[in-house]
Amino acid sequence: MLAYSEVTEFSGQVGDFKVKVRKRPRYVDQSxxxxxxxxxxxxxxxxxxxxxxxxxxxxxxxxDYAQGIPSVYTIDPxxxxxxxxxxxxxxxxxxxxxxxxxxxxxxxxxxxVAAVIxxxxxxLFDATQIPEYGYGKLPNVISSLEMExxxxxxxxxxxxxxxxxxxxxxxxxxxxxxxxxxxxxxxxPTELEALxxxxxxxxxxxxxxxxxxxLGFIQCVGSRDFRFHKYCSSYCCMHSIKEAIIAKExxxxxxxxxxxMDLRTVGxxxxxxxxxxxKVSGLQYVRGxxxxxxxxxxLNPVVRYEDTEQRKxxxxxxxxxxxxxxxxxxxxxxxxADLLGLDxxxxxxxxxxxxxxxxxxxxxxxxxxxxxxxxDIPESVAQASSAAxxxxxxVMTGGQALAV
Amino acid sequence: MKDQKSSDVxxxxxxxxxxSNIAGYLKxxxxxxxxxxxxxxxxxxxxxxxxxxxxxNEIKEAIPRENLNRVVVASCTPRTxxxxxxxxxxxxxxxxxxxxxxxxxxQCSWVHMREGEKGTERAKGQIAMAVAKAxxxxxxxxxxxxxxxxxxxxxxxxxxxxxxxxxxxxxxxxDLIEKQDxxxxxxxxxxxxxxxxxxxxxxxxxxxxxxxxxxxxxIRTNSTVKKVEGYIGNYVVTxxxxxxxxxxxxxxxxxxxxxxxLKPAGLMGYNGDRVVTHLELEAxxxxxxxxxxxVVMVQCVGSRCEERTYxxxxxxxxxxKNAILLKENDPTTSVTILYRDMQMYGVENExxxxxxxxxxxxxxxxxxxxxxxxxxxxxDVYHLRMGKQISMPxxxxxxxxxxxxxxxxxEISTMLKVPLNENGFFLExxxxxxxxxxxxxxxxxxxxxxxxxxxxxxxxxxxGAASRAAGVLSKDALHTSGIxxxxxxxxxxxxxxCVQVCPYGAINFFEDRGVCQVNKVLCKGCGGCAATCPSGSxxxxxxxxxxxxxxxxxxxxx
Lengths: 404, 558
Known about the structure:
Strand order of the largest sheet of chain B: 8-7-6-12-23
Shape of chain B: elongated
Number of strands of chain B: 28
Low-confidence stretches of chain A: none
Number of helices of chain B: 15
Helix content of chain B: 25-40%
Order of helices and strands of chain A: EEHEEEEHEEEEHHHEHEHEEEEEEHEH
Mean pLDDT of chain A: 94
Strand content of chain B: 15-25%
Distance between the termini of chain A: 28 Å
Helix content of chain A: 25-40%
Mean pLDDT of chain B: 94
Oligomer: heterodimer
Number of helices of chain A: 9
Largest sheet of chain B: 5 strands, parallel
Largest interface: A-B, 59 and 67 residues
Structural class of chain A: alpha/beta
Low-confidence stretches of chain B: 1-5
Strand content of chain A: 15-25%
Largest sheet of chain A: 5 strands, parallel
Strand order of the largest sheet of chain A: 10-17-11-12-13
Structural class of chain B: alpha/beta
């Protein structure tokens, strides 16, 4: 398995592809690292944790997430003091397996293969492109994946549904306490007053909205939208319902509203799950597209929309809004397609043959998962097996490109 | 393999620091000294990392040097490192099942970080339990079984054909069993496929032609499965072709029996004439029947209701396809689709949906509480978004009815011992992670037999099921795990309690002898039978009662 690696050169044809892979330096010897975590515990450099969307911090030596495979730590060269030429070396000192290697260099691996599978996945649609939804500006408007992290027992709030304004407010309160102590010693009372006013305001928000209980889920954010993606992202209706049900399981006082155009519950057991969401978890499905999200003085998102079944334009104040971001083609796919000679469709998904759903335009190169279009988990898993079958056919026939 | 008597049990205990993960919180010298006092322990070693190359070598060297016949490692979770330590034992000539683990990291040092003293006491208890069990371990063996490198695919629709093609291309002999007189299943009855506008015969002729020319694939049309015996690697499928029975030996079975369209008798005035199903409309279009001037299509007829709770996935796109074809054929035809949610998921469906609107297809949302009323020549419906009752003329009403399970799925499910869900679709091993597997090894699933799917999805799943099956066929032989259940025929009273709880269909009841027997190939060692058996006849090797009681006694002694 070549993790933390990328394809840099590609040539040849079915049965005989030549692939050059660049392994990025981890600055940790994978064969020695036992993933005990002592290095990260002692590392003095804190940086925002991308995996939790900056809702907590990680260290400069880190594992992306606990279950990552391979289970090995990596030094982030942008932030490591030693790699930036400063004095430190703490991780190397505490590592009893002697795995830290600041001098590690990138390396290259040459592969000769009969078939290739492209499964590069997707990216979350960047909701800042829809200014009327305020994502990135309104603290309590979050993406579906941020919601996943908030609901996760291993996430930044250990599964408690805190509002991002509360999580950040708590950090700010600690800073404010220090600043106020300092200001008390200074001569200038205006600064102290300003800090105390802020402290009061933040305290109010943190305490009043300790848990987000009134949730709005907004469907089709970037999907089914002519300005962005015309297509339906397939899985978002179900993940919003799932997130709402889990939130209710965690906090029984939770009230959730799902704002949708069509609730697409096409998978096995999905329609039943949706109905159970309403009956057992009390989810309310509201047919209508959100026009705009504003915010009140307590940082509560206020959504304005037309309820098309009630035939009225109205607003609703919520504790938190969760956007069902579209499934966008990954930005890196353009480079990969260029290297491999693949055709992409108008949405930058890998184009496949209409009757051969795993076959790209290049014989011997197959694709599966969200690289070829939005899919949910069971469909992706099924496709992965299918792509493996196509590759196995090619390998086992000594490189023949057979049709399905 | 050494022969062991309980009196000369010699246990070696390896205690891992896990860097500072364990040693940072627990008192390691105390644990080492304590382990030395335990019965049968002749050697104790502390390692910085037992799982590192150095630690593994220390185990491998100590076994012959100290003449060890049991090994205990006190470290992390067996889920990650048990196989590694077992293979170290095996390499040093010790049966790998004479190994036991105590998880003093995840279950002790990590959760008792602030209580080093008490945590150390607790770890002592865990080590004592592991040692007590180790003393009672018996060597176990993995049995090797032969494997027939052939496949049977049941069902010759597009999913089954794709599965057979892939397996044949990989070089395995395949028997493709089809009930009807021709391959192709439901696809034969369709008119045109979008977005290609091709008749299904283009796809079918190509696929069937290549299957017929594939020397590895034997096509058996007009054939039904009568009997299935055996288990993974060694099935015998009895198939009847025109009354003649054949016994086919096979290693794996792919279930691709498809589904059928619900005929909505008694619903919405269905009469098969002016009120028809989409399949019937396709037949009319195929024959070139004159297009009616006004068409109303109604979605979710017989689905998403109390009787059939599921959404049938493909009916919305079928309706949109047919609406487009009607409009393309004659733009003056009025087409209205009455729907609840248009399920046009993905890229192509949404494109098709948009195209239909461009062509002037009208969409009206209805409330399932106030369903449309179909009368002669018109349809009345409460227009949910206008909030009023409307009436529209309809020369032809087309009902979107769901795909439902085949009539004989019950028999197939019984023969293969694989489950169905409440709607008669076959139930996969795991809804997310094993969509094409059954819980029972050796049998795989694809196409409409699993759940309604599009042509592309059915082909994908057929190939996927082939891939899962090839994972078995590519092995030279099969091996059972050492940790399997066994039922003593002397004491078994044939109550079938174990058969009921076994999730893997691994236990058979032999009526002639009145006893149950475990198929060790299918057994996954879950222990459900051993826990259930009222007479204590079922036991799980590696977790026998004397071993577990010894652990419990140690746990309570502390």
